[in-house]
Amino acid sequence: MQQEADLTAGHGVLRATGLVCITAPTLDELDATVASIEQAARQSSCETRRLVGQQAQAFAAAALPLCRRV
């Protein structure tokens, strides 16, 4: 809904890729932190994807092809 309102108001669609690496001393803290970040991303109209064990591939796809569409 917010995206539609923004587009109607004349704002364009921006596609950007960012990587967030989360570490925590316990699994419970890790789960809580991930949930918090996912909630904040949704509130900001951002999409998140978990890449467990795929950090190297995600970095290569998102960061290395600078100035290219992913």
Describe the structure.
It is built from three helices and no strands. The chain is an all-alpha fold and about 70 residues long. The chain has helices at about 1-10, 25-45, 55-60. The protein has one domain.
Keywords:
single chain; 46% helix; 70 residues; mainly alpha
- Structural class designation: mainly alpha
Question: Mind telling me the C-alpha Rg?
Answer: 15 Å
Main beta-sheet annotation: none
Q: How much β-strand is present in the residues? A: under 5%
Tally of extended strands?
0
Q: Judging from the principal axes of the Cα atoms, what is the shape?
A: flat
Helix content: 40-55%
Q: What is the residue-mean pLDDT, rounded to a whole number?
A: 80
Provide the number of structural domains: 1
Cα end-to-end separation:
25 Å
Number of continuous helical runs: 3
Order of helices and strands: HHH
Low-confidence segments: none
